[in-house]
Design brief:
4 copies of one chain form a homotetramer.
Chain A (H helix, E strand, L loop, with lengths): L15 H23 L5 H8 L3 H7 L3 H21 L5 H14 L1 H7 L3 H6 L3 H15 L14 H12 L5 H14 L22
Chain B binds a DNA duplex through α1, α2 and α3.
DNA sequence: AATGAATGAGGATTCATTCAT
DNA sequence: GATGAATGAATCCTCATTCAT
């Protein structure tokens, strides 16, 4: 339901495919907001409600709660991959994008803890896969002489460490702490910002 | 109304008030285990069950779930304080004890994230208080020239960072990662171990 | 209770019987307060706590919750009986004492509803017995020509009606309404007050 | 709750919705019965059980226990209002309908005690609102010279008095006592019956 | 495909009652 | 006799998940 502001949508009897895609996107967006506000344990009903769809639709698109979380985090990871795929990418820049997402989303932090989140939230191998993609994106630009290139695990341990430092009620404070964390690690980081200017807008729905 | 089923049958023995202290200790111990396995959001009923007591006993000893968590974490913090109070204490040694507890207890990690725990578990100012005690214990031995002594927040940010790195299914792996984290921070840490061999005994309550 | 406790007890260390009597009185007093504040469904533990005794003591003196209530109300009824036994007693005077108790105690009101209370609070035939004693005390002074003497049930119906009217947060308001109720019934009532000046003081305990 | 979806019946009826309406009615009916038997403090689970639905259904339809009670009592009050709105209504007739409901429902009695209900059941201002509606319905037909028109509060005090008198295990006995109460008040009352012949029957649940 | 109602298990919390000391 | 701890049933309330329409 939820009157859609899209002008071309005037007929609820419009064919399903398009509606389905829109619903899926609405669910992912709603989940992102809900996760940001309440964490990964938030009730699924809240996500469906904020997306403006019935509970059943959520289950049609996502088999379980882990799938929802994965879909949300997938977008974050994709941005990092895109940042890594940019022509002028370097490790500092990619770390900056990564850090931005760390400061943005409590859920995203969890996934980088790999099993910290897995315990409670039932995000199983999904998390490992996402974490692996992040690692590949970073490592593609990791020079041999880089501070995090000596030991095999250092790169992702450092990422996890920054995740640990990123706490606080406001994004600004979280960013300040993230920057301090990288400084303590003696690692140079580019500007902390999303990859594109594709602002993922948060409609103050509901 | 009181429809009581006339418990003329044997009733599970009431061992008297002597057992109260033992029960409290059992609850704290059970809570420690349960928290380590499932995190601070674990059901209180699981704690009572593992302690081998009824639900009511838990509520007799602890008014709310925050009180349970506090009782558990309080012991960890106390060990760190004791380590700091030892005659030959230095910052590396205290950090070693701290790190041991970080590798030991998922719950303890949460509390050092300061607000990471606050979110769901309703451990609000408790966490801040415990975290403050840890900070004081550490700062008492922080030399002026120490790597973590330049910026005001660096000390606890570093602690949070190590907490972030401490993941993995086994304590050994978590310790390995913790050590790697301190190395990346270029901070010297003493042996990772509990303060004393003081078996976590029964506090002489009552 | 057979033993008359002389008020001038000089030996507080004289245990046993005397302590038991004091505890019983404390329980009744506490129950009166608790009932006035929370109604007849208040937890028994609250009564024991306010009386400053253990839970077990309550069960030693009273087999069930109805016995507690009865003990409390018994005192109210006794005052009414004493008022009726006074040399210069008349129906108006006894009604005044009765009304005072109605305005004083929500519990007492319930008992005069006879079965309204019985339903929930498990005050079974106790209530009937108490109600019967009140009726006898009143009827002893009911002149043949009295407004409430025509029909058999009129007397106690009128009492129940006044009980129904007695609502409100303060005793003053309840008294005002009680007086209005008697006026509507066209029944003359003496001064609304306890029988003796034996103020049953309410220590603001706890 | 209750987004007012315009109940235009153009669409092929969604039967899920139809069941919902039936369930809601069943819940209200069950609540009425349970309240009559056990009073307003009856467990909500008993209501759900008698309605033949799960607990969750009750919470879907009513956010809290006060909402359930309000839904039930609202119907009673509505009947009284309808009786007052009838073309040939007079005060005696409306009082008769009111009295019928008093004899019918212990819960309804509570609400007219105004604060008697407020105590335990958490039906605070709801009760006041319902009581106010009853008063308005009555007062609309109260002639200036009526016995209950002299003092401002007399009307509702009288209603409360009758409520107080209405006790007893059977409706018949309660009615007899109610009639006696009105007689003692010297107030003429019409036939004690529900407003319409609209028997509030048992919804053909399952 | 969407809807949103229903189910029912799970967890929190409160108390009446018993009983060892 | 008193104490107060323990038990465990009962109730409240929340969601994850299924399913009829």
């Amino acid at each position: 339901m939820t009157r859609q502001s899209t002008p071309d949508e005037r007929r609820p009897a419009n064919d399903g495919r398009r509606v389905a895609a829109r619903n899926r996107a609405a669910l992912v967006g709603a989940a992102r907001e809900i996760y940001a506000e309440y964490g990964l344990d938030a009730p699924l009903s809240a996500i469906a409600r904020r997306a403006g769809v019935g509970q059943g639709v959520l289950y049609r698109h996502f088999p379980d709660r882990a799938a929802v979380a994965t879909a949300v985090l997938d977008e974050n990871v994709r941005q990092i991959e895109q940042a890594a795929a940019a022509p002028d990418a370097d490790i500092a820049g990619v770390l900056g994008v990564l850090t931005w997402h760390q400061t943005q989303s409590a859920a995203f932090i969890s996934v980088l803890h790999i099993d910290g989140a897995a315990g409670r939230s039932g995000i199983p191998e999904y998390a490992a896969a996402l974490s692996g993609r992040v690692e590949r994106a970073l490592r593609a630009h990791l020079p041999d002489g880089h501070r995090l290139a000596t030991e095999k695990d250092d790169l992702m341990i450092a990422v996890a460490m920054v995740s640990g430092a990123v706490t606080g009620p406001t994004r600004e404070q979280r960013e300040r702490r993230a920057v301090a964390a990288w400084r303590l690690l003696d690692v140079e980081v580019g500007p902390v910002r999303p990859f594109d200017d594709e602002q993922r807008g948060q409609p103050p729905l509901d």
